[in-house]
Queue: 2 jobs
Job 1
Amino acid sequence: QVQLQQWGAGLLRPSETLSLTCNVSGVSFSGFYWSWIRQPPGKGLEWIGDINHSGNTNYNSSLKSRVTISADTSKNEFSLKVRSVTAADTAVYYCAKGPGWEFDHWGPGNLVTVSS
Amino acid sequence: EIVLTQSPGTLSLSPGQRATLSCRASQSVNSAYLAWYQQRPGQAPRLLIYGASTRATGIPDRFSGSGYGTDFTLTISRLEPEDYAVYYCQQYGSSPRVTFGQGTKVEIK
């Protein structure tokens, strides 16, 4: 079955770079888009951006200047970097398969806390 | 930018009752691009409905979706204990590519 496993640092200082990686198994990496979505504590979902196997990316304009999504197709992995983090970037970060037009598989999430 | 507004914010119902959740878009949305998710505490969201009305794999038939244009509805015909959760609608568009509603919490009355 499709599985997404994600990992990365959970505690950052302000101005540091957030870095997360998601490994995909049980499905071909090609032919789909792969997304990062975040959820601040007690709040709703925010789509950050996505990438396909060709390296084509789309970003939410609210974060575009600080975000890079990349992929390593040889490892079936894609990654997220968010530069110059602040407390407002504290959230659970999810990787997800999609959009096809929706997200049909999700990783378990990583809580990233930004604190001095 | 398409904004999705969900109502009510919280729905207090007893097990066995019917739940009706609304998702209203600021502009018309292609029904093929409208999805619903369930999120239980401490878990990742789970896809319930895509294409406005098609149940995802393994989703019980007490969940149904309907609507078109700017008004969409998720209905849970008879609430089970495991249905108490937060529900989000989501649309796929051009700019931004993806937006979510702010969520409706279904709680036990």
Job 2
Amino acid sequence: AQSVAQPEDQVNVAEGNPLTVKCTYSVSGNPYLFWYVQYPNRGLQFLLKYITGDNLVKGSYGFEAEFNKSQTSFHLKKPSALVSDSALYFCAVRDIPAGSYQLTFGKGTKLSVIP
Amino acid sequence: DVKVTQSSRYLVKRTGEKVFLECVQDMDHENMFWYRQDPGLGLRLIYFSYDVKMKEKGDIPEGYSVSREKKERFSLILESASTNQTSMYLCASSLEGDNQPQHFGDGTRLSIL
């Protein structure tokens, strides 16, 4: 079975500081990993994904994520936070081989960037 | 850009009614999904479809059914609405392939009174 955990319900960071949103996963094989962002009253928007290869993945809006197989983590990072980054962030995982298109999402982390 | 359109942003229905939520995507995606989103629970998959007339149950299919008669349209049906189905419902679509990202609509906030 596949599962994902986002250990922090909320993360607060000052504008201009680096931000990290944490994600850990559990799979029986190898993972496909995704990050999504949700702004108020909107659907989820895809940020980035890890499939294979380089452990540092770059995505939209200056975000990046680091895949760490030994720690089963896929933390989302940004060097300098903007107030407009304030949103709900979801990590998602799919086990490989999955035999299914089903993604498992974390419960989400609310990011607040303080001016 | 992929566009996933959900027919209603807000919907209010009564207990026992049959409720239809419609979703249309314009990018010829093979896969379509229905989720519900509840505070503290994240997203939970209700049903998904990987082809026309094909469907598979997700984690919480009870009380729901789906229909996919055309590739671009995926409907979620609440057979007899109950108050515990009050939620935000999100539709998504993706290309075939298990490493493809899903693209989401803006959601339907459904209230059952």
